Amino acid sequence: MTEETSRRTWMLSMAERLALLGPEHVHALFDRMDQPTAAAVGSDWGFWSRPAQRTPRARNWRTWLILAGRGFGKTRAGAEWVREIAETRPRMRIALVGATMAETRRVMVEGDSGLLAVASIDRRPVYEPSLHKLTWPNGTIATLFSAAEPESLRGSQHHFAWADEIAKWPNGLTVWENLSLTLRIGVRPRTVATTTPRPVPLVRMLAGPARKDVAITRGRTRDNAGILARDYLNAMDEYYGGTRLGRQELDGELIDSIEGALWDRDLIETQRVAKDATPEMRRVVVGVDPPAGAGDGADACGIVVVGLGEDGRGYVLDDASVQGRSPEGWARAVAAAAARWRAERVIAEVNNGGAMVKSVLHAVDATMPIRSVHAARGKVARAEPVAALYESGKAWHAGCFTALEDELCGLIVGGDYAGPGRSPDRADALVWALTELMLEKRPEPRVWGL
Question: Which terminus of the chain is less hemmed in, N or C, by CB atoms within 10 Å?
Answer without folding.
Answer: C
